[in-house]
Structures are given as structure tokens and as C-alpha cells.
Amino acid sequence: xxxxxxxxxxxxxxxxxxxxxxxxxxxxxxxxxxxxxxxxxxxxxxxxxxxxxxxxxxxxxxxxxxxxxxxxxxxxxxxxxxxxxxxxxxxxxxxxxxxxxxxxxxxxxxxxxxxxxxxxxxxxxxxxxxxxxxxxxxxxxxxxxxxxxxxxxxxxxxxxxxxxxxxxxxxxxxxxxxxxxxxxxxxxxxxxxxx
Length: 195
Known about the structure:
By secondary structure, the protein is an alpha+beta fold. The protein contains 5 helices and 9 strands. It has 2 domains: 18-24 and 148-194, no CATH class; 26-146, no CATH class. It has helices at residues 2-15, 27-37, 126-143, 148-156, 159-163, and strands at 19-26, 45-49, 57-68, 71-86, 89-108, 111-121, 146-147, 167-180, 183-194. The longest helix is centred in the C-terminal third of the chain and has 18 residues, at 126-143. It is elongated, with a radius of gyration of 22 Å.
């Protein structure tokens, strides 16, 4: 009986049009995405200047994502050795700062995106800020973008192996996104097909 009921439910979803639904995304999921797409150096760093072999460098690491009111807050740790490389050492100053940038969630078709980057906490060093401001206000929000439909299709691609039914996403349209407590909530229309 339960197998017949499951089949009826699956058929219902197959023939219905796209319906509005809510999808909640945790701060930890956004953090994992950011680490995968941007902080993907073997040490979990993103170099703004130099690389792991450079004597003088600037890098960001340890991203932490939280939510506050209607904004997504990204807290990162930065480390810099600014100066001139001389005999394999950096002659200059070493700086370590924690910085924060906040962004507003922005729905764009199938894409989870972010806009209105606001640097909430920055360093005291003009030289370091010269590198951090473009990174925090442009590159970081760009790298947080995710095509939600592609991600869902990837997840569903193995459904036949695990359930015996091949689920596929036929349409996904994100109407809005907003921070609600501990989740980024997406209002989406989604259509699925079952074979």
C-alpha cells in the first residue's frame, strides 16, 4: 500500500505545474560554498598579493558567515607582509587583521547572488585597505554566487541509485531571498519530473 501511495504522490508532482516553495540555506552552507569557490588554496587561503612561496604577500583565510538583520556577514582573517623582498625575506611590516563585510541577498533567475557590499570593519593600514577594499566589495560577493538549479540537479542526479526513481528538476525560478533568523530563505517556483 505505501509503495502505491508513494507512486501516486510522485505522479502528482510529475504532472503539476511549478509551485511556490521555500528553501532555507544555513550560514554554514554559504560558508562551505565560499571556501570551495574562493578559499581553495591547500591552506584554505585566498592570496590578494603574492602566493604561498612569496616573501611579501597578502592573504585572507578563515571565512565565517553569519546573519544579522537582513544582511549576510562575512568575517575573514587577513595576514600581510608588506614591503620589499630581500634575500628571501620580506623587509617591511607584518599586519594581521580581522575584517567584516556584509551583503544583501539578491535573487537572479536560478542564481543565489549578493549585492550592496558594505565593509563593516576594516584595518587601520592604508596599504592593506588598498588591496582589501576591491576584494571585499567586489570579488568576495561575486564568488559567493551559486546557481541553485545546477546544485539541485547535481543532488538529484543520483536519485535513481538511492530511491529507484529518477528525479529531475525541470524548472527553478528564485523570486526572492531574505534573511530570517538563522536561515537565508528563498521563495522559489520549482518543477520536477520523475521517471
